[in-house]
Automatic annotation (TrEMBL):
Superkingdom field: Bacteria
Primary role: Binds to DNA and alters its conformation. May be involved in regulation of gene expression, nucleoid organization and DNA protection.
Keywords attached to this entry: Coiled coil, Cytoplasm, DNA-binding
GO molecular-function terms, A-Z: DNA binding
InterPro entries given in the database record: YbaB-like_sf, YbaB/EbfC
Oligomeric and partner information: Homodimer.
Pfam families to which the protein is assigned, alphabetical: YbaB_DNA_bd
Localization annotation: Cytoplasm, Nucleoid
Major localization listed first in the record, in broad terms: cytoplasm
Record's protein name: Nucleoid-associated protein SAMN04488109_4526
Gene Ontology CC terms, in alphabetical order: bacterial nucleoid; cytosol
């Protein structure tokens, strides 16, 4: 028999855990590199760019286009890594909390 009160308790617990996940994502950091490590980007689990490190050797030349491409590549790699981390954080904190419903991807709640 379906227990509505038990389900409501699960929903409240799920909401609390999702709030905790959101808070944890601010603390997670992911890094991406390009140009053999000459450009490094760091983002939070919420995909906010918080640091960008550019090797000084790249700043001496006139290759502005190459530098721009390397920055874009590093940031995109960091964003991809942050996405993977965020989905794992959601999975870890909500595993077993709600029934496994086919097609329901809780990781999509992160962004």
């Amino acid at each position: 028999m379906f227990d509505m009160m038990k389900m409501m308790g699960k929903v409240k617990e799920f909401q609390a855990r999702m709030k905790e996940v959101q808070d944890n994502l601010e603390k997670l950091q992911a890094q991406g590199e390009s140009g053999a490590g000459m450009v490094k980007a760091t983002v939070t689990g919420k995909k906010t760019l918080i640091a960008l490190d550019i090797d000084p050797a790249l700043l001496k030349g006139e290759d502005k286009v190459i530098l721009q491409d390397l920055v874009v590549a590093a940031v995109n790699k960091a964003m991809d890594a942050a996405d993977v981390m965020a989905k794992e954080e959601v999975r870890k904190n909500t595993d077993g909390l709600l029934p496994n419903i086919p097609g329901m991807d809780l990781g999509s709640l992160m962004g």
